[in-house]
Amino acid sequence: MSRSAWVDASGGVAGDMLLAALLDAGASLEAVRAAVEEVIPGEVRIVPEQVTRAGLRALRVRVLSAADDHPHRAWPGLRALLTGAGLPGQVRDRVLSVFTRLAEAEARVHGVPIEEVHFHEVGSWDSIADVVGVCSALHDLAVTDLAAGPVALGSGRVSTAHGLLPVPVPAVAELAAGRRVLAGGEGELATPTGMALLTALARERPRLPPMRLERTGVGAGSRDTPGRPNTVRVFLGGPAEEAEALVLETNVDDLDPRAWPDVLASLLREGALDAWLVPILMKKGRPAHTLCVLAPPARAEALRAEVFRSTSTLGIRERRVGRTVLDRGWTDADVLGTRLPIKIGHRGGVIVQATPEYGHAARLAAAGGLPLRAVLAAAAAAAHAAGLLPGAPVPRLAPDPPA
Ligand SMILES: O=C([S-])c1cc(C(=O)S)c[n+]([C@@H]2O[C@H](COP(=O)(O)O)[C@@H](O)[C@H]2O)c1
Ligand code: NI
């Protein structure tokens, strides 16, 4: 059974806070401890404890390092450690996608190649335990659709291995690009690890999405700030009662066949998620079509009206359907000397689909006097060369294709 989860980060987010919230929402502490032991055996102890923050109950998680841990870990070495650990595939891929985002942010912030990135605090055993713990907790809870609301980043200054840094610190500012953020209060409310977890694993949903709420987990930060709960909340649930979508259907045997392309185009303009025709044989062996329309609930009435307006039908049947859709974003690749937008479909932090859209490929084909199939083949090769392969960690993506 797969679940959805929505993260309320309006009070900030750090790795230990998110781990605590997932444990508080029911994730197995044993499963989390076992996963961390797989990666860094004997290095840490994960200790949960009930606390209050601004007078409200919450779970705090402390990750106690056995030995003095003075991190200065190079990204390639950490990547090898994580890649070689005996974690379930989905957990390992999610952990790698989080640390890849952290390494990319560090590389950009410090102006160094990613292979030369050295983590400081983020490379410590407790940060590794936070990330591995969160990814194994999501796996244990069977969360396949993780979303997060706006993130409170904080304000002021914070003392770090890099020195006294302005809040949001450079790595957080880099990681947060493209996401809804706010200051939200004094101090460092969102840390690089917390921001990397959210931006690598959670899509953005500004408000709590419809769901059948099972439990709410409340994860505490180390400080107790009177009047402002220093917590992260995770709302864990299953699909909401209302349908994710409706399928409208009608059989039509007396519409001029030349009209159908305009019917489908008008339904898509009216907000249909998809519209298609199925050829059928009706009574008396008459050739006909079933018109099918995938309608978001909010557009159902407008689409019913459009079916009646643009076809000869006298009735529409409909059914509610669930949907599982990939998260999407855009990157690009060098195809025949041009940066061609590539649409990425991803789920659980890993790539599932990577392909150009027809319009972009067709324009490149026309400009180069090439057959479309040549551009599509070159785009597939370029995506492959760029590592945009099914199962690979999701790279940094833009929400829309470049203009
Ligand atoms: O460890 C690294 S690479 C690091 C980079 C930065 C930059 O902004 S650059 C900042 N920090 C600070 O370390 C602590 C711990 O961060 P966690 O993500 O491990 O909680 C925090 O104050 C960061 O601002 C670390
Ligand atoms: Ni740094």
UniProtKB/TrEMBL annotation:
Enzyme Commission designation: 4.99.1.12
InterPro entries to which the protein is assigned, alphabetical: Ni_insertion
Enzyme class: lyase
Reactions catalysed according to its record: Ni(II)-pyridinium-3,5-bisthiocarboxylate mononucleotide = pyridinium-3,5-bisthiocarboxylate mononucleotide + Ni(2+)
Keywords: Lyase, Nickel
Classification via Pfam families: Ni_insertion
PANTHER family: NICKEL INSERTION PROTEIN-RELATED (PTHR36566), PYRIDINIUM-3,5-BISTHIOCARBOXYLIC ACID MONONUCLEOTIDE NICKEL INSERTION PROTEIN (PTHR36566:SF1)
Cited function: Involved in the biosynthesis of a nickel-pincer cofactor ((SCS)Ni(II) pincer complex). Binds Ni(2+), and functions in nickel delivery to pyridinium-3,5-bisthiocarboxylic acid mononucleotide (P2TMN), to form the mature cofactor. Is thus probably required for the activation of nickel-pincer cofactor-dependent enzymes.
Entry's family note: Belongs to the LarC family.
UniProt name for this protein: Pyridinium-3,5-bisthiocarboxylic acid mononucleotide nickel insertion protein
Organism: Actinocorallia libanotica
Name of encoding gene: larC
